[in-house]
């Protein structure tokens, strides 16, 4: 196997990259982006070796405690639990939220061997026990497993007299009712609120 | 800017990778594919540094002369000119062609400053002058620039008394006439052949 074949094969670890895209990536880098390719190789090697999990929130971090957890300007009374770093980033970018996060790095899924320990809930338990957090905003995904995780988290919060809250479900802004799935529409109809 | 941001940015040199995919790639590698990521970094750094162009055919090669050009079992009388290494690979995989290749690494495009020199046509000129090649199979893409390049190559071949040939154009196998573009259909109609 040639080095070029090795490179094409190596690109396939990336998500959504099949044989054709991997080949296109390899050729593209060799033809037009050697400097960028060298930089990607350097940064990737460095990141894979350096980036670990924040001791407080389990998000990715280069340091023991991530910048958000270490920030003095964030509201220590609000904690938002999300499934993944991508969800954390989405909330950070879309909302004006100024509290802290807790990244589960997954969701409860007993069949896959993912229980409370794998989600770092012992860490969360200690965190809520510190008595600083007043509200746990549960932002797990609205899937079956995400909902099960949300219920578990809500119980954990209540045990520590922390108020659990959940993101609102309903019709997406700018969406057309006709194309909203039945479960969402039914939920939105049932949870209708008075017009302000 | 954090190392994670650097990594996301670095992934964007890959073709077809926007901010969202780059972010997904970075998270995926850090969450689930650290070993694969390390391997990709190693192979990529090595490839970018090592892989250069074959002295004979301009295809990518780790050695001065690529394995195909160096092979004693390939027919030295046939030379197939393609625009890119990907085209070379496609022909190699789809056909039983046993001749040699010449990879232009582009097509004539005067407005972009790509002339005969950039396509290594001086090298091709010398190659045809050696007198070994009998037929130049021109497999440039059927685009305006590809056709212009094909005409230029055909003239070059004739100047050396080498027979130029061109891939057949027509209705793709398994295609439905209804969905074939007008140019192709018109060409296929005009070039119709007698039923065997």
Question: Can you describe what's shown?
Answer:
Chains A, B: Keywords: DNA damage, DNA recombination, DNA repair, Metal-binding, Zinc, Zinc-finger. Chains A, B: A zinc finger (C4-type) spans 54-69. Chains A, B: It comes from Noviluteimonas caseinilytica. Chains A, B: InterPro entries: DNA_Rcmb_RecR, Rcmb_RecR, Rcmb_RecR_Znf, TOPRIM_dom, TOPRIM_RecR. Chains A, B: May play a role in DNA repair. It seems to be involved in an RecBC-independent recombinational process of DNA repair. It may act with RecF and RecO. The structure is a homodimer of 196-residue chains. Chain A is built from eight helices and six strands; from the N terminus they run αααββαβαβαβαβα. In chain A, strand 5 (135-138), helix 7 and strand 6 (163-166) form a beta-alpha-beta unit. The mean pLDDT of chain A is 91. The termini of chain A are far apart. Chain A has helices at residues 3-11, 19-32, 34-50, 67-70, 85-94, 121-129, 144-159, 182-190, and strands at residues 52-53, 60-61, 75-82, 99-103, 135-138, 163-166. In chain A, helix 1 (3-11) crosses helix 2 (19-32) and helix 2 (19-32) crosses helix 3 (34-50). Helices cover 45% and strands 13% of the residues of chain A. Chain A folds into two domains: 3-50, Helicase, Ruva Protein, domain 3 (Orthogonal Bundle), CATH 1.10.8.420; 70-166, Dna Topoisomerase Vi A Subunit, Chain: A, domain 2 (3-Layer(aba) Sandwich), CATH 3.40.1360. In chain A, the strands form two sheets. Chain A has a four-stranded parallel sheet with strand order 4-3-5-6. Chain A has a two-stranded antiparallel sheet with strand order 1-2. Chain A is α/β, with parallel strands linked by helices and 196 residues long. At the A-B interface, helix 1, helix 2, helix 3 and helix 5 of A face helix 1, helix 2, helix 3 and helix 5 of B.
């Amino acid at each position: 196997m040639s080095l070029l074949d090795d490179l094409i094969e190596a690109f396939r670890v990336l998500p959504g990259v099949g044989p054709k895209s991997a080949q296109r990536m390899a050729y593209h880098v060799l033809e037009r982006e050697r400097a960028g390719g060298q930089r990607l190789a350097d940064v990737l090697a460095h990141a894979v070796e350096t980036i670990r999990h924040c001791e407080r929130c389990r998000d990715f971090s280069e340091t023991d405690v991530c910048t958000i957890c270490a920030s003095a300007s964030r509201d220590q009374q609000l904690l938002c639990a999300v499934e993944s770093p991508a969800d954390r980033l989405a909330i950070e970018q879309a909302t004006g939220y100024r509290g802290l996060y807790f990244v589960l790095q997954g969701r409860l899924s007993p069949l896959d061997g993912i229980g409370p320990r794998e989600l770092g809930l012992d860490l969360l338990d200690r965190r809520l026990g510190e008595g600083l957090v007043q509200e746990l905003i549960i932002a797990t995904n609205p899937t079956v497993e995400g909902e099960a995780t949300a219920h578990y988290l809500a119980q954990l919060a209540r045990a520590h007299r922390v108020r659990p809250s959940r993101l609102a479900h309903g019709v997406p802004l700018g969406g057309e009712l006709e194309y909203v799935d039945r479960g969402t529409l039914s939920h939105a109809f049932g949870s209708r609120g008075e017009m302000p």
